[in-house]
Amino acid sequence: MDGSCPRFQLGQPRFQQSTFYGRLRHFLDVIDPRTLFVTESRLKAALQLLEDYEHGITAPEVTDCQLWEAQKIKQAIIHPDTNQKIFMPFRMSGFVPFGTPIVIGLLLPNQTLASTIFWQTLNQSHNACVNYANRNASKVTS
């Protein structure tokens, strides 16, 4: 992480969304697989830091970079509507490590009918689970 961070804004993207490079950096942050290895204690510390910031009781030594990292951790792991942890393989940050083996399986040459059905079923099941885990849970669907 570079040493210069923009001023922290709770709930806002860290990178400028009006430029391609800013949007690219934002989505690289969203799918950053390092967030898959965040420990429970680090998650709790990040949540506490953001809660303290929201209530205006952040310690003076807390930097904008630390606040951005805490928000990144929260947004990667906690569902914004349910406030529940998203199961690791279905997080956006799990897209590359969990989706890539499936894509490789889909692209294997000389597949049998059974292997094609297996990989297609696995792919569609994984996609459905990712979509469900990251759904809009604040509005009931009819």
From TrEMBL:
InterPro entries: Mtc
Repressor recorded as keyword: no
Cellular component per GO, a single term: mitochondrial inner membrane
Keyword Membrane in annotation: yes
Membrane topology: Multi-pass membrane protein
Protein name as annotated: Sideroflexin-5
Coiled-coil portions: none
Record keywords, A-Z: Amino-acid transport, Membrane, Mitochondrion, Transmembrane, Transmembrane helix, Transport
GO terms assigned for molecular function: citrate transmembrane transporter activity; monoatomic ion transmembrane transporter activity
Family as reported in the entry's similarity comment: Belongs to the sideroflexin family.
Localization in the cell: Mitochondrion membrane
Source organism of the structure: Callorhinchus milii
BP terms from Gene Ontology: amino acid transport; mitochondrial transmembrane transport
Domain of life: Eukaryota
